[in-house]
Amino acid sequence: MQSGLAHRPWYGSMGFAMSTESENPFRPEYFRREDESPDVLFYREPRLVVHIDDRAIEAVGEYFSTSLPSEGIILDLMSSWRSHLPADFERERLIGLGLNGVELAENPQLDDRVLADINTVRGLPFRDNSLHAVVITVSIQYVTHPVEIFREVHRVLEDRGSFHIIYSNRMFPTKATAIWRSLDDYEHAQLINAYFAVSGGWEQPRVLDISPQPKGASDPVYVVSARKVAE
User: Domain tally for the chain?
Assistant: First the structure.
C-alpha cells in the first residue's frame, strides 16, 4: 500500500449490467453472514453514531477533498447520517442511497436521498453515464453481491468517473460477509481489487493507507479506488 495522501434529471429506470469481463470466481457461501435476517430489519432503528473515530473521519475528509471531483454529481452509496465530506466541499449534488430514512434525513450534506437495499435490489436507480463519482465508506463488508454492484456502479459512472471504497477494521460482525471476516486489512485491499478485476472495465486500482499517524493511535483507514475505462 502507498502510505499517506499527497503530503503523507439523474434518476432513471432500474438497470443491471449483465456483461462480464471475466468469470466470477466468488462462491455464494463467501458472502453468507451470521445474521441472514433481512437487512431492513437490522437497520430499522436509526443508529446516529459514527463507526470510525474523529481522527479517522478527518483523514477520510482530507482524502475526499483531494480525490473527488469538485462541482460533480457524487453518489454516497450505503449512506447514513454522515458522509464525511469536508464542510466546504463544493459539488453539484450529493446523493445518498441507504437503508434508513431517518439516518438519511439527518445527513445535512445530502441534496437527494434514495431509500434502497442494494443487497436485495441490486440495480441502481440512475441513468447510464450520469454520475461523476461514487463512494462507499466503511460499508463494503456488508455487500453480498459485490461484483454485480461494481458492474452497476460502472454503468452509472461517466467515462473516467471514479469509484472509491474506504474501509477500516470496524464492523457489525454478524452482518459482515464470511469472506471479509476471514481476511486481514491487507487482504481486504486484495479482495476489493478482485471485485474491480472481475466486474471489468476499470483502470488499474489505486490502494492507499490513509490511517492517521502514529499507527495505532486511531482507527486505521484504507482506500481502494479506480476509474471507469473511457470507451
Answer: 1
